[in-house]
Amino acid sequence: MMAKVLTPNTRIGGPGTTVEMDKAAFARSKGVRGSSRHYYWIVGGYLTNQDKSQRQATFERVARRDKSTLYGLIQRFVLPGTTIVTDHWKGFLGLDELGYKLEKVNNKKNEWTNENGFTRNHVEAFWGRLRRSLPVSGVPRWHHVGYFYRQVYLEQV
């Protein structure tokens, strides 16, 4: 499986394609004392082609994960007519009004594939690989973005 890092001006998807979208929180400990953490959010998507042999990925660190920020990212990175597979988070509701087809998978009810056969397993697996690649401590949070791009690059090779 290959993941292709896209430039900021590249858009993925289109009619007949599927993009798995998700958001993930990443944290960095404040120090060895206490449990205070600094969180940041990454919103991302994986384009799955028909034979599932190659994927295109687009991810961005965001300051807020509200509906307007999310809609702006999706409109910037995903072409209209794309089927977007998401969880049941309410920030994703209403994408069908923007010209996208929306499929939801409810992981909280142990649903990993919805009734139409759509899944979010590929984007969830990416978050797991990314978290395992991050150092446990001693790295400033602004360096985490470098680890993030490194992991996406390693999936290309």
Walk me through this protein's architecture.
This protein has 157 residues and is an alpha/beta fold. It has a single domain (2-156), classed as Nucleotidyltransferase, domain 5. The protein is globular. Strand 3 and strand 4 form a beta hairpin. 24% of the residues are buried. The protein is built from three helices and six strands; from the N terminus they run E-E-E-E-H-E-E-H-H. The chain has helices at 67-77, 121-133, 144-156; strands at 2-5, 18-29, 37-48, 54-62, 83-86, 101-104. The protein has a six-stranded mixed beta sheet, with helices on both faces. Residues 1-5 have low confidence and may be disordered. It is 24% helix and 29% strand.
Keywords:
single chain; disordered N terminus; 24% helix; globular; alpha/beta; six-stranded mixed sheet; 157 residues; 29% strand; Nucleotidyltransferase, domain 5; 3 helices
Strand content: 25-35%
Which CATH class is shown?
Alpha Beta
Strand order of the largest sheet: 1-4-3-2-5-6
- Output the CATH topology: Nucleotidyltransferase, domain 5
* Total number of strands: 6
Total domain count? 1
Which parts are unreliable, with pLDDT below 50 for 5 consecutive residues or more?
1-5
Going by helix content, strand content and strand pairing, the class is alpha/beta
CATH architecture: 2-Layer Sandwich
Rg computed from alpha carbons, rounded to a whole number of angstroms: 16 Å
Number of helical runs? 3
Largest sheet: 6 strands, mixed
Global morphology: globular
Query: What is the string of helix and strand elements?
Result: EEEEHEEHH
The CA-CA distance between the termini, in Å, is 9 Å
What is the helix content?
10-25%
Mean pLDDT: 77
Pfam family, one: DDE_Tnp_IS1595
Domain ISXO2-like transposase: 11-143
InterPro entries: IS1016-like_transposase (IPR053164), Tnp_ISXO2-like (IPR024445)
Protein name: ISXO2-like transposase domain-containing protein
